[in-house]
Amino acid sequence: MLPTERKPIAFLFPAFPVLHQTFVLWEVLALRRLGVPIVLYSLKRPSTRTQQPEGAALAREVRYLPMLSGAVVRANLRLLLRSPRRYLGVFVRLLHEWWRDRRVKNLWRDKSAPPDPAERMLTIPERVQAFLNENPVMYLLRSLALVLPAAYLGSELRQAGIARIHAHWASYPATVALILRWLFDIRFSFTAHAYDIYLVPQLLPVKVRTAELVVTCARVNAAYLEQLGGPTPRPRVLVNYHGVDLERFVPRPQASAGGLPRIVTCGRLQIYKGHHVLLRACAALRHPACCVIVGEGPQRANLEQLARDLGIATRVEFTGPLPQEEVARRYSEATLFVLASIVVTSYGKRDVIPNVLAEAMAMQVPVIATNISGIGELITDGVSGRLVPPNEVDTLARVIDELLSDAPQRQRLARGGVEKVRAEFDRGRNIQALARLFIDAQEICF
Q1: Mean pLDDT computed over every residue of the chain
Q2: How does 396-421 read in b/e, with b if 16+ C-beta sit within 10 Å?
Q3: pLDDT category, 94, cuts 50, 70, 90?
Q4: Residue 287 in contact with residue 313, Cβ under 8 Å?
Q5: Mind listing the pLDDT tens digit for each residue in 80-92?
Q6: Which CATH homologous superfamily contains domain 262-424?
Q7: What is the pTM of this model?
Q8: Domain range 9-243+427-445, CATH architecture
Q9: Where in the chain is the domain with CATH 3.40.50.2000?
């Protein structure tokens, strides 16, 4: 039993709660059950009102930070008058660290990789968002602007007696946490996920060096972050897999949906999820199958049109966003679960270890995925699933056909998948380890 009498930790998110980021929602709920007192803050409100039931309940207690208000102005003026050198020095330090890190992105970008033709499918809002997210100058300007709400948040945390903050995502939330360290000596940690470390790595090295602890969800991320942070006197980057709720996602008898075999996928309808690759592969199958795409996003209209152009629209279902219980039901109807993730070469957007793969594996559904990022940490090809190169439609179609016609192989891979998840991706056990990181302050975290 973990102790419950602890000082609260402020958790800071870019937006919270978010429907498709259920792993963060379950983490907060589980940590609280294990005795970690958490106060929730968010830089902005979610873009949609649709939530998991548990997320809707939490949303009522989230404190959303104002970017500019009378209270924000007063908090900044107080700091400026009380400690002008320290306050103004934060702007100088941000600019200095950003300039020093201006060549960091060369560590990951594969200059030899050709642009994915599918990037032409990006909508205008997606192109604008990509520019804002990956442009180093825009990143600097937005980081400098975050000094204002950070000063307000720091004042509020001090009044509440909160001396620790944990930022989810290594981008802007961790920038705010870094500023709080510089302004108020508030100790911080952060969790790094995927896009937040591969889009604009500027300021990441100083965050890794300054944070008391960095948690990430894959070994490939940890190696990258350790390379950025340089040598440290003790381990600061620790891997904690998000994991799966093994009580919710349990093997079930395959639900009969009737008719053709069903290929299920789940994820935001964005280019990097590779749904366009899956649709093209489905059109090339020797064994026709239905394709169920769970999720919502800016690429929906393009994907629906692609299905029509390929002549498979009558065999493709777009479900839109679904609560997790309904997602689990869709998994139970699947003959195969396929996620054809790609790396968007122009700005590095990618999956690392998508939770939906582990969820399907936990339900003993055979899976096919691409061998990018950290997916190989979850799936061993031929043992716990199948791996194919990204963007190779013919290869993906061939492997899907192979599994559709080979029930014994599907059963063997399904058994290997559930064994892998139970061994390394049990959310309950992994959350216990994460809770211990926060609670054992003297030994590891703070």
Answers
A1: 88
A2: bbbbbbebbeeeeebeebbebbbebb
A3: very high
A4: no
A5: 999 999 999 999 9
A6: Glycogen Phosphorylase B; (3.40.50.2000)
A7: 0.87
A8: 3-Layer(aba) Sandwich (3.40)
A9: 9-243+427-445, 262-424
The residue behind tokens 């799936």 is: 379
The residues near 367 (Cβ < 8 Å, ≥ 6 apart) are 336, 337, 338, 339, 357, 360, 361, 379, 384, 385, 386, 413, 417
Report whether pLDDT(445) > 70.
no
Burial of 333 (0-12, 13-18, 19+ CB in 10 A): middle
The confidence score (pLDDT) of residue 430 equals 92
Averaged over 46-54, what is the pLDDT? 70
Q: What angle do CA 179, 157, 17 make, to 5 degrees?
A: 85
Q: Which residue has the tokens 């889009």?
A: 199
Q: 2 pLDDT exceeds 80?
A: no
Give the whole-angstrom CA distance, residue 285 versus residue 307.
14
Tokens of residue 348, six digits: 């590095």
